[in-house]
Amino acid sequence: DLEFSEDASGVLEGNKKSTNKQGDKSKENTRKIFSGPKRSPTKAVYNARHWNQPESEALPAPPALKTPSVPVRLSSKEAIHKDDGVFKAPAPPPKVIKTVTIPTQPYQEIVTALKCRKEDKELYTVVQHVKHFNDVVEFGENQEFTDDIEYLLSGLKSNQPLNTRCLSVISLATKCAMPSFRMHLRAHGMVAMVFKTLDDSQHHQNLSLCTAALMYILSRDRLNMDLDRASLDLMIRLLELEQDASSAKLLNEKDMNKIKEKIRRLCETVHNKHLDLENITTGHLAMETLLSLTSKRAGDWFKEELRLLGGLDHIVDKVKECVDHLSSDENEEKLVASLWGAERCLRVLESVTVHNPENQSYLIAYKDSQLIVSSAKALQHCEELIQRYNRAEDSICLPDNKPLPHQNVTNHVGKAVEDCMRAIIGVLLNLTNDNEWGSTKTGEQDGLIGTAMNCVLQVPKFLPQEQRFDIRVLGLGLLINLVEYSARNRHCLVNMETSCSFDSLCTGEGDESLKITGQIDAVQALVQLFLECERAAQLAESQTDELIKEAPTAQHDKSGEWQETSGEIQWVSTEKPDSTEEKVKKEEDDEELDLNKALQHAGKHMEDCIVASYTALLLGCLCQESPINVTTVREYLPEGDFSIMTEMLKKFLSFMNLTCAVGTTGQKSISRVIEYLEHC
């Protein structure tokens, strides 16, 4: 045993020596490859760049410790290989220490934690509840708005000098020219506060002009109107300052011109289609603001307050002023301006009188029915102007082969006349709807019933094709309102003579008995119109049914043939691919063409049915409480039978029941007329 141990120890000593020799050789090789040139032993180099040292993965594993908590260095770095005689700084201590806690119980888990010594922590501040970028931007915008409005409101107060107040109003109006600022102003409910501060502006001419300009700028939005009663009252008071400047504190002309120039430049930056920039006055700006604030953008309170504060008075007076200019203006530009002014005022009056009996009665009584008188004159002027400035695209058959005056289809004067006519009839429809007083007052106007008949029979020939149906239905509706509750108007219409409908003169096909020329009774012309529309509706309905019922017939497929090859039957195409694509495209075009034809027939059928129904309703209203009128209408009907009229009215009533609220006054009137005609 001892001998064996000695031999073994000798072998081990020999292996150790050889290993030491090989290690010395590897160190020498390492120095030769990686070591730099020899350096002076008197110099010391401090190298704190620990990131240039090898990674921690290359370090040998630390010896296992028996303690349950063992710190492990993650960011420790090896020092760079030392050169002979050169001193290196030690590696910096690790900043982050990974601590692993070994569980002592079987149900516990290993817990790993990262710790950093206090002296290694960098100085920093923890900010909690950091806002998002969008929130910061929104907060900044709101703060900027708040600062601006507080600054400007402080300059609007009555204790400030007049020049300061004017400058603040102009500055606020300039900011309100931006839609975003107007949105902020409305969102925070600041509009009423601004005008409450300027409540005394009507006492100063320059301040009232600036306030009217601010109102005009704020009215450029198509949002819900946010004016309260005090703001509307201020607007009405500013309207009265157009000619009344005696109580105002006048500025010298130079300062006033400066303010007007600022307002003119400001108004040029917004939508100002109807604003006369050469006529910048308080009344003009206030009127334009009022006309842009229709009741469609407000509640029922606006309709009532506009009447109580006197706003309707100013609008009616404006209508009269524009109508008076229609007979005197020869210049087309001035004529268009008058037509547009009347049309805009009438649109506001139309909207405030819908389902509002109080406003209807007030407007009928105002200055002895001034609105009705002005509307009747304006309608007669428009009837004359539409013949001079017609926009009809196609030729119309006229008696004695007289050609229609040729005009440009895009004539702006003709379009203004058409819009004004529709607005006039719309106001008159509201004033006469279920209102005997309004119907009587309107029918008393000289030539109004005859003008309404011409709107049904003659005026459509001067309009574009797509506008004829509208003006005809409006005229029929006005005549129905006039004769429904007024015996005087019924008598006037029955005894009137007129020309037959313009389109009945062009019937080249069909029943020759429908062709009537010259002056005829109004009842005969209406019966003629009803029969033509009823037959046209039947024809369109039959054509549409044929288009719908036509089924594609099964045709022999000639695109190929069946052939038997090697005991199998195969379909062999005989057409070229190009011809197949052309055939598919042609079929699609034919289907689209058929669909368009069906839609056109359906639209024409609907228009003819509505015109025939309105005409039948008008004739039924004429027959009420008048056996003489029943006999007159019966003479012109085929075989004197009212069933053709009642059938059309029943279809129209069914259509209204589907599309309108059940129980309206229109449906009750139709039902009453149907019941009366069935007993005739």
Automatic annotation (TrEMBL):
Residues 1-44, 50-69, 552-585 are annotated as: Disordered. It comes from Cephalopterus ornatus. Residues 562-573 have a biased composition (Polar residues). It holds the Pfam family WAPL. The keyword Nucleus applies. It comes from the Eukaryota. Regulator of sister chromatid cohesion in mitosis which negatively regulates cohesin association with chromatin. Involved in both sister chromatid cohesion during interphase and sister-chromatid resolution during early stages of mitosis. Couples DNA replication to sister chromatid cohesion. Cohesion ensures that chromosome partitioning is accurate in both meiotic and mitotic cells and plays an important role in DNA repair. Signal peptide: none annotated. Interacts with the cohesin complex throughout the cell cycle; interacts with both chromatin-bound and soluble pools of the complex. Interacts with RAD21; the interaction is direct. Interacts with PDS5A; the interaction is direct, cohesin-dependent and competitive with CDCA5/SORORIN. Interacts (via FGF motifs) with PDS5B; the interaction is direct. Interacts with a SMC1 protein (SMC1A or SMC1B) and SMC3. GO terms for biological process: cell division. Belongs to the WAPL family. One of its GO terms (cellular component) is chromosome. Keywords: Acetylation, Cell cycle, Cell division, Chromosome, Coiled coil, Cytoplasm, Mitosis, Nucleus, Phosphoprotein. Coiled coil: none annotated. Its main location: nucleus. InterPro entries: ARM-like (IPR011989), ARM-type_fold (IPR016024), WAPL (IPR039874), WAPL_C (IPR022771), WAPL_dom (IPR012502). It is found in: Chromosome; Cytoplasm; Nucleus. The keyword rRNA-binding does not apply. Residues 117-659 form the WAPL domain. This is Wings apart-like protein homolog. Residues 22-31, 575-585 have a biased composition (Basic and acidic residues).
